[in-house]
Amino acid sequence: MPEILSAAACNLDANILAACLPLMEESRLEAIEWSFDALFKVQQIPSWFFELLTAYSNEQRLIGHGVFFSLFSGKWRQEQADWLKQLKKVREEFRFDHVTEHFGFMTGRDFHHGAPLNIPYTKTTLDIGRDRLKRIYEACECPVGLENLAFSYSLEEVKRHGGFLEQLLEPVNGFIILDLHNLYCQIHNFNIPFEEIIRHYPLDKVREIHISGGSWENAPNSPLKKIRRDTHDDAVPAEVFHLLENTIARCPHLKYVVLEQLGNALTTEESRTIFYNDFGKMENIVKKKNTPGISSYQSFLPSSPVITGKIIEDEILHHQQLELSAILESATSCGEAIQSLTRSSLAHTAWQIENWEPYMINTAIQIAQKWKK
C-alpha cells in the first residue's frame, strides 16, 4: 500500500536549508517541496542545490509549489506566459511528482507581485481558473493541484471554497493541498467548528497536507477579537497538530504531509530547533496514521487529453481587480476602504462586498500594503 511521506518546504534559502539539514543527515526528510518559481530569475542554480533537487527528483520525491502565477487574473499577462515557459524548462531538468499553485489572484498592478486574495465564485472565474489549470498541466505534464486559501471576506465564502475548488480541478482531474493552518485561520476568524468546515471539502481530492505557523493581530474597533494570519513565521500551533491527527484518516489518497516555514523565521539556533521538533511531532503523527489501508493510489492525471484553446479573459473582472487592489493598497483605514468599495464597480455584484466582514477588509489592506512595499 502507498505510504504517506513526511516532507518539508525546502528552498534556496540558507536558513531553511540549515533547519532541514539535520533531518536530511538523519534520512528523515522523505520528500521536499520546492517553490520553483522563486528561482525563475536566477541565472544558474548552485550545483549543490541542483544535486539536492536531482536526488529527490530521481526518487520521485520532489514536488513543485508555485507562488506567483496568479491563477484568476482577469486579463492574461505576459508574466503568466513567461511563467509557463519557465515551468517547461524546469520540467526538462527535474521530474516533479506533482505541481501545485495558490488559489486566488495576486494584488498589485501587474498581478504578478503581491499576496493571493479571494475572488467571486462565478462561472467567469470558474472558466478562467480551469483554463489556467489546463495550461499549467500542459507545461508540467504531471498531476496539478491547488492550495486552499487562508483568507476570506465572509463566512459564506468559507463554506463555498471547497466546492469551488472541486469544480475548478475537474477538467485536469486535479487534487487539493489541504493547508491545515489556512483552515485554522478560517476556523478562528469566522468562528466555525472544524467538523462543520471540513464537511465542505472533497477530502477524496486531497493528495497533500500543509502544516505551518502564523501570527495574531488585533481587529480594528474590536479589542477582544484577534485575527489569525497565515504568515508562516512561527512554530506550528498545537491546534494545527490536532487538526492533522483528525484529518489524515479522512483523506484516502493522501501522499505527502509538508512542514512549511519562512527562512526569515529560522535565523536562530532556537528557532531551528523548534522547527526540528515540529517536524518530529508531524512525523510521529504520520507514522501512527501510516497503517495499511490508510491511503490508496490515485494518479490525479486526466482521463482524457487536456486541450487548451483561446485564452479566456474578462475585462470586467480585470477592471474590478485593478480597482480593488488600488483601494486596498491606498486605504489609510478600514472605514475609508469600505466607503471606496461602496462607490466602486464591485458594489452590488457577485463580489458581494456588502457582506464582507470589516475586520477581514482591514486584514486585506494589511496584506496588500505589505506586499506593495
UniProtKB/TrEMBL annotation:
It comes from the Bacteria. Pfam families: MbnB_TglH_ChrH. InterPro entries: MbnB/TglH/ChrH, Xyl_isomerase-like_sf. This is DUF692 family protein.
